[in-house]
Amino acid sequence: MPTPRRIPGPLRGKRKTPTARTPLSRELILQTALTLVDEEGLAALSTRRLGERLRCEAMSIYHHYASKQHLLDAMVDHVLGTMELWSDSADPFQRVRHAFESYRATAHRHPAFFPYMAVHRLNTEAGVRFIETVLSLIRDAVGDDELAARYFRVAGYYLVGVGLDETAGYAKGPSAAQPVSDAYIREHCPRLVQAAPYFQRGEWDTTFELGLAALLQSMAADAARRSGAGGER
């Protein structure tokens, strides 16, 4: 019969002390949810998975957020609040540029969450304040209410498209059941072959800057024309 292993004296009679759990709070739940989505995607977000990470019962989360939708709204509000919309530049167009660049940077900080945020109706208090801030920045630049409204929408088309394409777009989207071969493309699509190097990730900044510069130049030109015409259309 084997001799029982003797437990060292200092350890006898001692129990392992459990690690204290951080008290559950709205902020802890929100940050854990964002981390979960960043690491595993939006489809992984559930109260069960959050409970596993937080070491709590899933139902405990509902004491802080009435529903999953309330949590998602809070996540959108939080991400909006991380954007650096204001800059110290005296040039109003540079302030607009800074806000647009910040929006794109936010998409890259939370690429798995951005597709949800991009189509979310920003009708919470934080959401409408965000819209008001961006509209004010554009209005300061173009000096006209109608131009501000229209360029706010144009900027949305561009920035949402950029964010979606760079975080979850063409390169990551669904593919055909039988995609054509590289040999087929080389033989039949010479323009695509020539363009392909400029579609790569290392070229994204240059392409974004090209589009942003065109947008800002158009804003400035329309603002100048509207001002020169004395506000007349």
What topology does this entry show?
Elements: H1 26-40, H2 47-54, H3 58-61, H4 68-81, H5 92-109, H6 114-118, H7 125-142, H8 145-168, H9 182-188, H10 190-195, H11 204-228
Helix pairs in contact: 1-2, 1-4, 5-7, 5-8, 7-8, 8-11
Could you explain the architecture of this structure?
With 233 residues, this protein is mostly helical. The termini are far apart. The chain is built from eleven helices and no strands.
Order of helices and strands: HHHHHHHHHHH
Average pLDDT metric:
90
Classified in CATH, the superfamily of the largest domain is Tetracycline Repressor, domain 2
Number of domains as seen in the coordinates: 2
* Range of helix content: 55-70%
Class based on secondary structure composition and strand pairing: mainly alpha
Largest sheet: none
Number of helical segments with 4 or more residues? 11
* Ends distance: 101 Å
User: What's the total number of strands?
Assistant: 0
What is the CATH C level class of the largest domain, in words? Mainly Alpha
> What gyration radius follows from the Cα positions, in whole Å?
26 Å
Q: What is the CATH third-level topology name of the largest domain? A: Tetracycline Repressor, domain 2
CATH architecture classification of the largest domain: Orthogonal Bundle
Shape, please? flat
> Segments where pLDDT lies below 50 for 5+ residues?
1-19
Strand content: under 5%
